[in-house]
Write a structure and sequence with these properties.
Elements: H1 4-33, H2 41-55, H3 67-79, H4 82-100
Helix pairs in contact: 1-4, 2-3
């Protein structure tokens, strides 16, 4: 006898995979065309990294500073450009959604 629950599970899994791949394709598209975004946050982090690199001084990008993202995003933008930087941040978002949702 054919089990209806198995068919529902397959449809649910197929829908989840379709949604996931749609999210990945849309995110990659936005990573390619979005540059560094439209606010000053990322630009100030990149400027902090350039300041560390050229002047050997750390000037925070915000009032309280975020040293690890400032160095990470600054390094990726300096050596690889905006697409790889955005793709890396998007990959971290997908990993976080996978592990915590």
């Amino acid at each position: 006898m054919y089990n209806l629950n198995t068919n529902r599970i397959k449809k649910k899994k197929l829908f989840s995979l379709l949604l996931f791949f749609t999210l990945v394709i849309a995110g990659t598209y936005l990573c390619y065309f979005n540059n560094y975004g439209y606010d000053w946050d990322t630009y100030s982090m990149i400027n902090t990294f350039y300041n560390i690199l050229e002047n050997k001084t750390y000037l925070r990008s915000r009032g309280y500073g975020y040293l690890v993202p400032e160095i990470g995003i600054g390094f990726l933008s300096f050596y690889f450009g905006s697409f790889i930087t955005n793709l890396f941040c998007f990959f971290l978002l997908i990993c976080g959604m996978f592990f915590f949702l």
